[in-house]
Amino acid sequence: MFRAAVDIQPACLGLYCGRTVLSVNGSVETYGDCGVCPRGQRTDDNKICRECLGSPDRYDWLYLGFMAMLPLVLHWFFIEWYSGKKSSSALLQHLTALLECSVAAVVTLLLSDPVGSLHIRSCRVKKLSDWYTMLYNPSPDYITTVHCTHEAVYPLYTIVFIYYAFCLVLMMLLRPLLVKKIACGLGRSDRFKSIYAALYFFPILTVLQAVGGGLLYYAFPYIILVLSLVTLAVYLSASEVEFFKDLLVRKKRLVVLFSHWLLHAYGIISISKLDKLEQDLPLLALVPAPALFYLMTAKYTEPSRILSEGGNGH
């Protein structure tokens, strides 16, 4: 009898509007009015709000890892940029930044549902519009808008904001004390510049996630590959590395090279998702290829050599 009453209810309009389950009596469910689903739920094919009980798949974790790496890489870049060549404090600052981001990631996971566990439950991402439910609020009479905005990709959207907040708090608690004690070789105004830089890039990362989270979700593997290739080429060129022996002169160059190789591998794994190991794992052999290609061809593109050969030709 109740099911018949439910069937004659007006259709639930909107791509992300649904009816919440008010009560369950055996196999019969009582539904509420059409509207926004509670946090941690999304609509099924019948426009009923269902709790998300799944776990993030491998690609979801790779996306979260990418978003977690962004502030860490930026921390390391600005620490290196402002620490100076003779500063012995750079390594400790690098380790402190790694500690801050690692602790922030663990705390974020522990506070996510289920609380106290490193595992999280999530809703499955089906399409790009899942990230932008605020754009799909229906207006049945073209006057009144039914607001059905909710996190259909729970918790992939908001968990990044929580992580950035913890990163910022931990940085403000730990880094100033460390820099004040160990950065004696730097000027009073220079020693805190890496921290000031973080106060700029954290809001930028937050806006980037808020506006482009869905686009980043689908594009991040290609972003990693392109940026890592470009930055590696720029670094090798700026460091005047032309031969393999030039990499061995300073250990820092090897660290930068291996870091870029790790990013290459991360991008390849994110694209392939390692669904078929026998086909995808051999792709990792391509990781050193860009650096090897650069080292083998750099001597042929040396500006002074090109100019000298051009002069001899005339």
From TrEMBL:
<keyword id="KW-0472">Membrane</keyword>
<dbReference type="GO" id="GO:0036503">
    <property type="term" value="P:ERAD pathway"/>
</dbReference>
<dbReference type="GO" id="GO:0006986">
    <property type="term" value="P:response to unfolded protein"/>
</dbReference>
<feature type="transmembrane region" description="Helical">
    <location>
        <begin position="61"/>
        <end position="79"/>
    </location>
</feature>
<dbReference type="GO" id="GO:0016020">
    <property type="term" value="C:membrane"/>
</dbReference>
<dbReference type="GO" id="GO:0031625">
    <property type="term" value="F:ubiquitin protein ligase binding"/>
</dbReference>
<feature type="transmembrane region" description="Helical">
    <location>
        <begin position="195"/>
        <end position="216"/>
    </location>
</feature>
<feature type="transmembrane region" description="Helical">
    <location>
        <begin position="154"/>
        <end position="174"/>
    </location>
</feature>
<feature type="transmembrane region" description="Helical">
    <location>
        <begin position="281"/>
        <end position="298"/>
    </location>
</feature>
<keyword id="KW-0812">Transmembrane</keyword>
<protein>
    <submittedName>
        <fullName>JNK1/MAPK8-associated membrane protein</fullName>
    </submittedName>
</protein>
<feature type="transmembrane region" description="Helical">
    <location>
        <begin position="222"/>
        <end position="241"/>
    </location>
</feature>
<feature type="transmembrane region" description="Helical">
    <location>
        <begin position="91"/>
        <end position="111"/>
    </location>
</feature>
<keyword id="KW-1133">Transmembrane helix</keyword>
<feature type="transmembrane region" description="Helical">
    <location>
        <begin position="253"/>
        <end position="269"/>
    </location>
</feature>
<dbReference type="InterPro" id="IPR008485">
    <property type="entry name" value="JAMP"/>
</dbReference>
<dbReference type="Pfam" id="PF05571">
    <property type="entry name" value="JAMP"/>
</dbReference>
